[in-house]
Design a protein that fits this description.
The complex is a heterodimer.
Chain A (H helix, E strand, L loop, with lengths): L1 H7 L3 E6 L11 E7 L2 E8 L7 H5 L4 H4 L11 H16 L5 H30 L3 H21 L8 E2 L2 E2 L7 H23 L3 H7 L7 H7 L4 H4 L7 H4 L20 H25 L5 H11 L30 E8 L4 E8 L5 E7 L1 H13 L7 H7 L4 H5 L1
Antiparallel strand pairs in A: 1-2, 2-3, 4-5, 6-7, 7-8
Chain B lengths: L1 H10 L4 H8 L1 H29 L15 H10 L11 H21 L14 H22 L3 H32 L4 H6 L14 H14 L11 H4 L9 H26 L11 H6 L6 H33 L5 H31 L2
Helix pairs in contact in B: 1-2, 3-4, 3-5, 3-11, 3-13, 4-11, 5-6, 5-11, 6-7, 7-9, 7-14, 9-11, 9-14, 11-13
Chain lengths: 399, 363
């Protein structure tokens, strides 16, 4: 009799989360099988934001495609432009002046902080705390204002170009950035004071969504997510693509691999990024733009190795005509450590003005794939905190 | 008071029976008005205070400094279309907000706002308050079940689980008050605390105060115990499918319950309408100036109201502050917290207060 009743009651419930749900960070759809409140099975459905970024490249010239890559990840546009530029530069063997590399590095690291800050807010929103979101927006606003001053845009910057950057820092920008670098750590202390040791946050995040080393590596998880599992994978250290080898910073690692570890790694990374920016602002060749202008006029020697009018203090090698810009036949992959992990741009050039093929490898795509493994057998309430801790940006998944 | 009322109706040449019938309605009309008034300003206060906590401005467009924002919202809700999806259980779906709302309204009638401002003064007032406040959960479960929405269902189920685990420590914490006052009548509980700040129940039963405070936050489903309507998981929980006036009833019930819970805590533990001094301020300050007893009574009455409102809003302030600070607990953690931590604490409190009571009174 008991068995009969047991069989007649359907135990599991199919529930559809998203694509319109307040906290799926965009348009992810998850088909969950619940047993009570325990998640038994998950099926992520992606593609609601597919814009065909890879295919679009094939019908556009290199310069027409450049502004589009910002939109792949709206929170950290600089990284995608950088990846495309590095790929094109390595095919065309275009040299990048050091000053331009420094400007790239400073903007990228600021972008990393801005992205992590927004992640922090939305992660705590997933946990149910509403106020941190407003605080991180206050701080992010300061960085975004700096970007706006520099590039004219708040999110879709379109600032890098093949062979350098488009503009120099405006006057006074460096002083403002240094001030911000000094101010920020105090604000991070403020967050940590109410989040890091908050018993409810600890209870909710520790020992949930544990990502083991092997699993993470098998699924191709990168960035802070894998560093939280104790894998020392940081392209800024190992590939030294920009001028990262000239700055001193450490890779932040955690061992436990749970949501809390991912939080800790990201918060530490923000502090490290600030350190990188601070050093870069001091070391930038030519110094502040005002000083550089004066020195250039006074020096006017036009020697290659000159500190003020040589190659390294320029913004780009030479002015490229966007209409005639072509790359030689060849292929290249540029890999970059973005805020979310490794992004790779695979670029094939057939010698025409348009790329033959562009393939993006995005870290969020791997992170969504691993979600079913992480949330298996955990309560439904843990779904969003675990998903949030992976820092997935949906446009990046769908491209 | 009734004589006056009957006299007025008599002057208007209405039969006495109308006076008898309508007399009972008047307190409830007053309570309903009070409730709506309180909720409208409580919502405004919460939004303004949360905005202040989160470096925003909050509502500042409707009326001076956003003062009329909630009125505008209430009017909007009144005129909204009432949407019901095809496969809902129409009767239960309609009845659920009423079940959630009505008990809260009756609790308003039981509360001694001042010495005389108490609509229903019965011997088992305290008992009735908790009996009614747990009825609200039935409405929420019904709403969750009848909406035919899986998120709502989960929200309703969570609400039931939460209610079961929080009612018990709540009631045991309150039991210590019954022991201290020797009565279940709310007015007598207040008068038992007269004699200044140090004779308030919070001193012998401080643990009970903490337990009751935590439990009452859970009882009204607020952060960090807002599981039934966890917006990051369940969209909006049990009221996802509701719109228009039905949603407004849930909203009203939630905030009204929040206010009345604070009133209850200040009544039970913080001396209710009594001042924190040995005597009323108006007696201490104005006794020699005003000789007229009637004016004095009115003054004392107003002062009682002031003290209760002050205590209540201090507690509300705390609750909103907690909302601005803490994240949400998970369902199983919430149960564990209640059964493993609050329940033993409530028992310890009960034993302690009983011992104190015996020590003071002897056998």
């Amino acid at each position: 009799m008991n068995k009969l009743i047991e069989n007649s009651i359907k135990k599991d419930m199919l529930i559809n989360v998203g694509p319109q749900h307040p906290s799926t960070h965009g348009v992810l759809r998850l088909i969950l099988t619940l047993e009570g409140e325990i998640i038994k099975d998950t099926k992520p459905v992606i593609g609601y934001l597919h814009r065909g970024k890879e295919k679009l490249a094939e019908s556009r010239t290199y310069f027409q495609y450049l502004p589009m890559v910002d939109r792949v990840d709206y929170l950290s546009g600089f990284f995608y432009q950088a990846a495309l530029c590095y790929a094109a530069e390595s095919i065309g063997e275009i040299k990048v002046p050091k000053r331009a590399e420094y400007i790239r590095l400073i903007t990228m690291e600021f972008n990393r902080i801005a992205s992590h800050l927004l992640w922090l807010g939305s992660f705590l929103l997933d946990l149910g705390a509403t106020s941190p979101l407003f605080y991180v927006f206050r701080e992010r606003e300061k960085i975004i204002t700096l970007f706006e001053e520099l590039t004219g845009q708040r999110m879709m910057y379109n600032f890098y170009t093949y062979g350098g950057v488009k503009k120099d820092f405006p006057e006074g920008w460096i002083a403002k950035a240094i001030d911000l670098c000094k101010e920020m750590p105090k604000l991070f202390d403020e967050y940590e004071a109410i989040i890091t040791k908050n018993p409810i946050v600890l209870e909710r995040t520790q020992k949930t969504g544990i990502l083991s080393k092997e699993l993470g590596l098998n699924y191709g998880i990168t960035g802070p997510n894998i560093r939280a599992s104790g894998v020392n994978l940081d392209l800024r250290k190992s590939n030294t693509y920009s001028v990262y080898n000239e700055t001193d910073f450490k890779t932040c690692l955690a061992q436990s691999g749970d949501s809390y570890a991912r939080y800790i790694v990201r918060v530490q990374e923000m502090r490290e990024s600030l350190k990188i920016v601070e050093q870069a602002l001091k070391q930038i060749p030519g110094g502040t733009p005002e000083k550089l202008k004066v020195k250039k006029v006074n020096c006017n020697c036009n020697r290659e190795e000159c500190e003020y009018c040589g190659f390294d203090s320029k913004l780009a090698e030479k002015k490229i005509n966007p209409m005639t810009f072509k790359l030689p036949i060849g292929e290249a992959t540029a890999m970059i450590e973005s805020a979310r992990g490794i992004i790779a741009c695979y670029l094939v050039s057939d010698g025409t003005a348009k790329p033959y093929r562009i393939k993006w490898r995005t870290p969020s795509f791997s992170a969504v794939q691993i979600l079913p493994e992480l949330i298996k057998n955990s309560p439904y309430s843990d779904l969003m905190p675990i998903f949030g801790s992976l820092d997935v940006v949906l446009p990046e998944v769908d491209r | 008071m009734y004589d006056l009322y009957a006299k007025i109706l008599n002057i208007l040449r209405l039969p006495e029976i109308i006076a008898q019938l309508t007399w009972a309605v008047i307190p409830f009309a007053c309570i309903a008005a009070l409730m709506v008034f309180v909720v409208i300003f409580l919502v405004l206060m919460e939004r303004k205070f949360l905005a202040w906590l989160t470096v925003r401005k909050g509502p500042n467009r409707v009326g001076p400094n956003g003062f009329l924002q909630t009125f505008a919202d209430a009017i909007k809700l009144l005129f909204k279309e009432d949407i019901m999806s095809e496969e809902t259980n129409k009767l239960l779906f309609t009845i659920a907000p009423v079940i959630a709302f009505a008990p809260v309204m009756i609790i308003y009638g039981l509360m001694p706002f001042t010495e005389h401002l108490i609509a229903i003064n019965i011997a088992v007032g305290l008992f009735l308050v908790f009996a009614l406040s747990s009825l609200t959960t039935v409405g929420i479960v019904l709403a969750g079940w009848s909406s035919n929405n899986k998120y709502s269902l989960l929200g309703g189920m969570r609400s039931a689980a939460q209610a079961i685990s929080y009612e018990i420590p709540l009631v045991i914490a309150v039991l210590s008050i019954a022991v201290l006052a020797g009565s279940l009548n709310l007015k007598e509980i207040v008068t038992a605390q007269s004699g200044g700040l140090f004779s308030w129940n919070i001193f012998p039963a401080f643990i009970g105060f903490i337990v009751l405070f935590i439990c009452s936050i859970a009882e009204v489903n607020r952060v960090p115990f807002d599981l039934p309507e966890a917006e990051s998981e369940l969209v909006s929980g049990y009221n996802t499918e509701y719109s228009g006036m039905k949603f407004a009833l849930f909203f009203l019930a939630e905030y009204a319950a929040l206010f009345i819970m604070s009133v209850l805590i200040s009544t039970l533990f913080l001396g209710g309408y009594l001042p924190p001094f040995n005597d009323y301020l108006s007696i201490i300050l104005l006794d020699n100036i005003i000789k007229n007893q009637a004016i004095m009574d009115i003054l004392i009455h107003l002062e009682q109201g002031f003290w209760l409102v002050a205590k209540t809003y201090t507690l509300l302030f705390l609750i909103i502050w907690i909302r601005g600070t803490l994240p949400r607990l998970r369902a199983d953690q919430l149960m564990g917290f209640s059964w493993k931590f609050l329940l033993p604490l409530a028992f310890i409190n009960l034993i302690l207060t009983s011992i104190i009571k015996l020590a003071i009174q002897g056998y």
